[in-house]
Amino acid sequence: KFYKYELYSIDNHSAEGSCTFEDIRLYDNGEANQTKGMLQICDGVKWTAVCDYRWRQEYSVALCNNLGHTNP
């Protein structure tokens, strides 16, 4: 868990039930992407965007690690 973040519902053509609660992904140009894109988290039914002006570098590092990447 990163911290308390704000979630915004978005339409990304993801079928309901196609994700598991608290799964994360990067989403770019209409598809999941391993290296770039908008951060999304699953609310248990659909993907939602994580939008927060308080985002810090350590959250990006944690996200990259969670996606299987090493620290930059």
Automatic annotation (TrEMBL):
Domain SRCR: 24-72
UniProt keyword list: Disulfide bond
Gene Ontology CC entries for this record: membrane
InterPro entries, sorted: SRCR, SRCR-like_dom_sf
Keyword Transferase recorded: no
Stored SUPFAM superfamilies: SRCR-like
Record protein name field: SRCR domain-containing protein
